Structures are given as structure tokens and as C-alpha cells.
């Protein structure tokens, strides 16, 4: 992957990584949106949508509760979308490798967010005196530093992940030996299992929700059957 | 809720002080970056000070006055809440500061707001509204919606709730000041999460088979191929439940059920996405080195 290809993707990864927590949390960082935008950027929005929907099903389970550590889906979805559209769109194993790449990036992204929060804390500690004096410039500076660092984090994470994973994806797909249909079935089964588990986690405490889920499932299969 | 119970009665102006519309726009836009400097020590604190700064400029003496500096220092200290519902705190604290409430009272009020604004927002947004919008978009995707419609629908729907909630929070916080805790008894906040969860459960049931069927792509050949004529309409359709390779289809359903059960059993210890990561890593390795 050339620098010319990498740069716009890295910038997109940075912007979408910023949306996860820092600004503006409009959920453009959700996999469904982020991967589709990535697909559109490289000319294959439909492919981006496919990998985005798969990742979204897996991401349903993770809720960004305050101080908890959670995967960073914004930059990760850019990586997943790019791997699928640039390397594996039509190949056996393409979706599996792209989803795996995105999950690995989300894992590292979660860790990088923890480090960023620690860095923000250190910056705030170093400015404690000015903050106690009510210096508005310090408050604004800390805010801008935090957001800039988050943007840089996302850009670097996306660039690094694509630089490392892109050749690995190419090599994996060249050696791929499992039937395309079986490969796709495996990733679908994994996504279905995670989503079902997520649905239970999200709704099991609400009275009547289980029945609603089963009712919806029946309706979904009926629609599928009739289409 | 708790805040109202713990705070003594306070004398309050009949109507809030006048704040220019441009100041509110500035506060609202800054609220979008309220987590810009989020950290494990002061959490949202710096973001609250940052968002309130345009209103605090209206304090006597302006930005160089002692009131402004004391208020900025106070409002930039530790604070935690859901980022969207933090708007309630920003509005209420802005009014308390402009009305000259006692600093000790403002600090007690800030502390009292932390818990309710966090838990209500988490249940309403992270565990309710976000999954619902996501599932509705996935259902639309499963029904054949294209990229623009799918993500457009998700973003418009989600952000109608997101931006509306922030605007409501800022307005209600400003209107009620330190008595804002009663606003948290709003029926939408109290009963909304349960209602949203039920609708989201239906959406999950519908979206799951539809979205998976669209993603499945080349593997569709494994589970289709049997044509069935619907007796009443005479329409010919494919059966998605009867596969060419019944053993494989049954195996997949069994694996999905076992995987979901495992994730549910291991909740709190291992998250599903991590299991997916390791499971896919093993499969990719197997497919490459076989």
C-alpha cells in the first residue's frame, strides 16, 4: 500500500477515532458508518457496507460506559473497510481477514485510548495550579490538547494498522485454502453468536423483552422466507 | 432525584438571567467536545469548565473578574456524568453561578448530580437508543437498503435523539437551576429505557436473520436452492430454512446457539468481541497453513 493510498485512509481513521469519545460522538465512528465511508473513499461503498454490517453486529455488544475499557471501533472500522475493499472483496477469506484485522485494531485502539486518558490526566496534573486559579486559557488548552492527541492517535493507529496488516492480508489471501462459502459461513456464525449474546445482555433485565426478541426473530425469518 | 432531597430550599429568581443566543450556541457547540480532555482523575471536569466558559464570562467583572476565575476553577474540577446528559448539569450550574449561589452549595449540587446523570444516560443512550438505531439500520440493510440509505437512516435517527437530548438538557438545566433534579423524573428518562429495550429487542430479532442473510454472500448457495410455491398466492420463493447441506446448516445453527450461550455464561469475564477475535484468528491460521 502506497503512502498516497494510506494518507486519506489514515486521516479518515483519525477523524472517526476522534468521534468515539472526544468530539462530537455523533456515532460516525460506528462500524456500519465508518466502514461504509471507507468503502466509498476507495470507490466500493457496497463492499464497505458489507464489512461494516458484520462489524456492527459484533460491536453491538460493547457499550462505551465511562471509564471502562472498550474497543475503539472508529479507526478499526476504517482498517476493516480498507482491507476488505482493497484486498479481499471478491476473494475467498476476504471478509474473514478484514474482520479479523478490524478486531485486532479495535483491541489495540482500546489500549491506546487508555494511554491517551492517562496522558490527559498527566497534562491536567501539571496544570493543576493554573486550573485552581481559574485560568480559562489552561482549560481551553487542555481541551484542545486532548482532542488533538486523540486525532493523532487515530491517524497513527490507522496508518500503522494498515501498513502492517495490508501485506499480511495479501499473503493470507494468497494462501487461503478453505472454501469461500464455508469461510463466509464461519464469520457469519461468529457474528450471529456475538449478536445473540449481546441481545441477551442488553435486554434480559427488561420484562417482556425476551418475548419481543423471539417475536422479532419469527418476523425476520418470515420476511426472509417471503422475499 | 437524590439531589433534590439532599439540598435545602433556596431562594431563586423568578426568571433566569438573560443570556444572549450566541452564547448558548457557543455553549452547545462546546458541549459536543465535553469529553475532549477526559481522563481518569477529573473525568469530565475540564470539559464542563470548557463548555460553561462562555456563560461565565457574563459574571460581574468579566473574564478578568474574581467571580469568573473562582467559577472556572470550581467548574473545571472532578465531574462525571453521561456526556449527553452533562448538558443538564451545564445549564443548571450556569444558572447557579450567574445567580450567585454560595460556592459550597454549588459544589454539593455538582456532586449530587454526578450519579443520576451518569446512570440515567447510560441506560437511556448507550444501552437503549444506540443499539436500537443500530439494529434498525441493520434491518434496513438486511432488507436491501444501499450504503447511503443505511448510514443516512442511522445517522439521522441517532442524532435526532442525541442532539435533541443535549438541547433538552441544556434548556431544562437552565430553566430549573439547582432544582433540576426533578427533571430527571421525566417519564422519558424513567420509563424510556425499558420501552426502548422492548422495541430494540423486536428490532434485534428482525435484523439478525435479515442482515446475516445479506452478508452471507457466496455461502448463500449452501442454504438456498429449494424453491417453494406459496399455495395461496402462487408465488415462487426460495426456502432459506432448507439447505442443500442440512448437516452444515444444522451445525452452524448449533454453533451459533452454543457461542451465544458461552458469551452469556462468561459475561463479566470475557466479552464476545474478544472471543470473536480469537476464534477468527484460529480460523484464519487454519485456512492459511492447512
Fold and architecture overview:
The complex is a heterodimer of chains A (227) and B (290). Chain A is mostly helical and 227 residues long. Chain A has one domain (3-179). Chain A contains 9 helices and no strands. In chain A, helix 1 runs antiparallel to helix 4 (73-88) and helix 2 (31-41) packs across helix 4. Chain B has 290 residues and is mostly helical. In chain B, 66% of the residues lie in helices and 3% in strands. A two-stranded antiparallel ribbon of chain B has the order 1-2. In chain B, helix 3 crosses helix 5 (86-98), helix 5 packs antiparallel against helix 6 (103-142) and helix 5 (86-98) runs parallel beside helix 7 (147-176). The longest helix of chain B is centred in the middle third of the chain and has 40 residues, at 103-142. Chains A and B meet through helix 2, helix 3, helix 5, helix 7 and helix 8 of A and helix 3, helix 4, helix 6, helix 7 and helix 8 of B.
Any key phrases for this structure?
heterodimer; A: mainly alpha; B: two-stranded antiparallel ribbon; 11 helices
What is the gist of this entry?
With 227 residues, chain A is mostly helical. Helices cover 79% and strands 0% of the residues of chain A. With 290 residues, chain B is mainly α.
Q: What is the overall silhouette of chain B? A: elongated
Share in helix of chain A: over 70%
Radius of gyration over C-alpha positions of chain A, nearest whole angstrom = 20 Å
- The low-pLDDT segments of chain A are none
Structural class of the helices, strands and pairings of chain B?
mainly alpha
Mean of pLDDT of chain B: 86
Number of extended strands of chain B: 2
How far do the termini of chain B sit from each other? 61 Å
Greatest interface: A-B, 117 and 116 residues
From the alpha-carbon coordinates, what is the Rg of chain B to the nearest angstrom? 26 Å
Strand order of the largest sheet of chain B: 1-2
- Give the termini separation of chain A: 41 Å
Quick one: biggest sheet of chain A?
none
Largest sheet of chain B: 2 strands, antiparallel
Domain tally of chain A: 1
The assigned structural class of chain A equals mainly alpha
Amino acid at each position: 500500500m502506497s503512502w498516497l493510498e494510506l494518507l486519506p485512509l489514515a486521516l479518515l481513521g483519525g477523524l472517526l477515532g476522534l468521534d468515539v469519545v472526544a468530539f462530537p460522538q455523533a456515532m460516525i465512528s460506528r462500524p456500519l458508518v465508518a466502514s461504509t465511508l471507507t468503502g466509498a473513499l476507495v470507490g466500493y461503498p457496497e463492499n464497505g457496507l458489507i464489512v461494516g454490517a458484520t462489524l456492527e453486529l459484533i460491536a453491538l455488544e460493547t457499550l462505551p460506559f465511562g471509564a471502562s475499557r472498550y474497543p475503539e471501533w472508529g479507526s478499526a472500522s476504517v482498517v476493516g473497510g480498507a482491507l476488505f475493499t482493497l484486498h479481499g472483496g471478491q476473494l475467498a477469506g476476504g471478509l474473514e481477514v478484514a474482520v479479523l484485522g478490524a478486531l485486532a485494531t479495535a483491541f489495540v485502539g482500546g489500549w491506546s485510548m487508555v494511554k491517551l486518558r492517562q496522558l490527559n490526566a498527566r497534562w491536567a496534573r501539571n496544570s493543576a495550579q493554573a486550573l485552581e486559579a481559574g485560568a480559562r486559557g489552561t482549560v481551553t488548552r487542555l481541551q484542545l490538547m486532548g482532542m488533538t492527541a486523540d486525532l493523532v492517535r487515530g491517524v497513527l493507529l490507522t496508518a500503522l494498522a494498515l501498513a502492517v496488516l495490508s501485506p499480511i492480508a495479501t499473503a493470507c489471501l494468497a494462501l487461503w485454502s478453505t472454501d469461500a462459502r464455508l469461510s463466509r459461513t464461519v464469520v457469519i456464525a461468529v457474528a450471529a453468536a456475538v449478536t445473540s449474546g449481546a441481545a441477551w445482555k442488553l435486554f434480559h433485565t427488561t420484562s417482556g423483552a425476551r418475548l419481543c426478541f423471539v417475536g422479532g426473530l419469527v418476523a425476520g425469518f418470515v420476511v426472509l422466507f417471503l422475499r | 432525584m437524590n439531589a433534590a432531597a439532599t439540598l435545602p430550599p433556596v431562594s431563586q429568581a423568578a426568571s433566569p438571567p438573560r443570556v444572549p443566543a450566541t452564547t448558548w450556541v457557543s455553549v452547545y457547540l462546546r458541549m459536543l467536545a465535553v469529553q475532549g480532555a477526559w481522563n481518569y482523575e477529573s473525568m469530565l471536569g475540564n470539559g464542563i469548565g470548557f463548555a460553561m466558559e462562555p456563560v461565565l464570562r457574563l459574571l460581574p467583572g468579566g473574564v478578568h473578574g474574581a467571580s469568573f476565575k473562582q467559577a472556572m476553577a470550581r467548574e473545571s474540577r472532578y465531574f462525571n456524568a453521561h456526556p449527553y446528559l452533562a448538558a443538564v448539569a451545564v445549564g443548571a450550574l450556569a444558572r447557579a453561578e450567574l445567580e450567585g449561589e454560595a460556592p459550597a452549595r454549588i459544589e454539593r449540587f455538582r456532586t449530587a448530580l454526578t450519579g443520576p446523570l451518569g446512570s440515567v444516560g447510560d441506560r437511556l443512550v448507550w444501552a437503549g437508543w444506540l443499539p436500537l438505531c443500530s439494529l434498525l439500520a441493520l434491518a434496513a440493510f438486511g432488507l436491501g437498503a444501499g450504503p447511503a440509505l443505511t448510514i443516512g437512516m442511522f445517522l439521522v435517527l441517532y442524532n435526532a435523539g442525541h442532539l435533541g437530548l443535549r438541547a433538552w438538557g441544556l434548556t431544562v438545566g437552565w430553566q430549573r437551576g439547582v432544582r433540576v433534579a426533578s427533571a430527571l423524573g421525566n417519564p422519558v428518562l424513567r420509563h424510556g429505557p425499558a420501552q426502548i429495550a422492548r422495541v430494540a429487542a423486536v428490532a434485534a430479532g428482525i435484523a439478525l436473520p435479515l442482515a446475516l442473510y445479506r452478508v452471507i454472500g457466496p455461502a448463500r448457495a449452501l442454504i438456498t436452492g429449494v424453491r417453494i410455491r406459496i399455495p395461496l398466492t402462487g408465488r415462487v420463493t426460495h426456502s432459506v430454512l432448507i439447505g442443500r447441506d442440512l448437516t452444515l446448516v444444522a451445525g452452524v445453527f448449533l454453533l451459533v446457539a452454543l457461542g451465544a450461550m458461552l458469551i452469556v455464561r462468561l459475561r463479566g469475564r470475557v466479552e464476545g468481541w474478544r472471543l470473536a477475535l480469537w476464534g477468527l484468528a484460529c480460523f484464519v491460521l487454519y485456512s492459511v497453513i492447512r
